[in-house]
């Protein structure tokens, strides 16, 4: 696996691999089994797979965890290599941000759910991804459904800016107890890890209610809130696949999304159904 530290090295790598199908897996590092599954999917689908590791400052709000976000380059290189990546791109902030030019995420999608408490977050995500897409020019790019709102905004970005890239959604990878894998799980202590499973349990409860014929969003949300108790809930939302709020679940057209605090750590999870 090649280690690329600057844009010139990426360009040289791309010249050597001209004409090949390129898959791209953008990450902020602290790679776990969720990232590993994205990389493996890219390796399966493409001749060349490039993983980026970049903790993107513009998607963190003041007071968020930019400084303490987990960073472990040696580990990330190992995981990417073991998963079969052809190259890993590890740029620094000055290379990715020669100026403060930015892209604005679509406001209707970016101001709800995560965007309601993290204004500007998706502008930062869209800005960095547009830069990576322009540098790497992949044929496919891989995103986890764990960050469903991000996935839908990225699909919108690609369509709106006419990037010729297929966005490949990938299933959430969960620990044995159901907790969705996330780099932020490393902030949780032992007892918080147990509490964190309530997010998944609330989604399982929702699924059971739907299977038993309950489709009302209000009823499902109230039951989910009971499962999440005593966690501080940021939101429980039931939406269609374009993130419009819906009153009734429609099978194969709906998404249930949760954000809740476990101690000081804000976690998200969701279920497509
Ligand atoms: O999901 C992430 O890790 C980040 O938002 C991404 C897509 C790598 C952009 O910085």
From TrEMBL:
Pathway: Cofactor biosynthesis; (R)-pantothenate biosynthesis; (R)-pantothenate from (R)-pantoate and beta-alanine: step 1/1. (R)-pantoate binds at residues 59, 150. Its EC number is 6.3.2.1. It is found in: Cytoplasm. Pfam families: Pantoate_ligase. It catalyses: (R)-pantoate + beta-alanine + ATP = (R)-pantothenate + AMP + diphosphate + H(+). Keywords: ATP-binding, Cytoplasm, Ligase, Nucleotide-binding, Pantothenate biosynthesis. It is an enzyme of class 6 (ligase). InterPro entries: Pantoate_ligase, Pantoate_ligase_C, Rossmann-like_a/b/a_fold. One of its GO terms (molecular function) is ligase activity. ATP binds at residues 28-35, 144-147, 173, 181-184. It comes from the Bacteria. SUPFAM superfamilies: Nucleotidylyl transferase. Beta-alanine binds at residue 59. The active site is at 35 (proton donor). Signal peptide: none annotated. Catalyzes the condensation of pantoate with beta-alanine in an ATP-dependent reaction via a pantoyl-adenylate intermediate. The reaction proceeds by a bi uni uni bi ping pong mechanism. Homodimer. Belongs to the pantothenate synthetase family. This is Pantothenate synthetase. It comes from Campylobacter magnus.
């Amino acid at each position: 696996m090649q280690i690329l530290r600057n844009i010139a090295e990426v360009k040289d790598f791309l010249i050597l691999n001209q004409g090949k199908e390129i898959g791209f897996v953008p990450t902020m590092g602290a790679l776990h089994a969720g990232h590993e599954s994205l990389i493996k999917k890219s390796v399966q689908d493409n001749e060349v797979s490039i993983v980026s590791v970049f903790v993107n400052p513009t998607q963190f709000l003041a007071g968020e965890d930019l400084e303490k976000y987990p960073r472990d380059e040696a580990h990330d290189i190992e995981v990417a290599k073991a998963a079969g990546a052809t190259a890993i791109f590890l740029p620094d902030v000055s290379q990715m941000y020669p100026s403060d030019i930015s892209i604005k995420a679509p406001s209707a999608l970016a101001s709800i759910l995560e965007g309601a408490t993290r204004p500007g977050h998706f502008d930062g995500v869209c800005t960095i991804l547009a830069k990576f897409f322009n540098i790497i020019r992949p044929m496919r790019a891989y995103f986890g459904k764990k960050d469903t709102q991000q996935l839908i905004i990225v699909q919108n970005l690609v369509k709106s800016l006419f990037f010729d890239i297929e966005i490949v959604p990938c299933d959430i990878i969960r620990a044995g107890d159901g907790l969705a894998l996330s780099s932020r799980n490393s902030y949780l202590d032992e007892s918080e890890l147990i509490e964190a499973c309530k997010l998944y349990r609330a989604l399982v409860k929702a699924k059971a209610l739907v299977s038993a014929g309950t489709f009302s969003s209000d009823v499902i949300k109230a039951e989910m809130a009971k499962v999440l108790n005593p966690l501080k809930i940021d939101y429980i939302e039931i939406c269609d696949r374009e993130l419009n709020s819906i009153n009734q679940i429609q099978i194969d057209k709906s998404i249930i999304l949760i954000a809740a605090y476990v101690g000081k750590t804000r976690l998200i999870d969701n279920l497509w159904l």
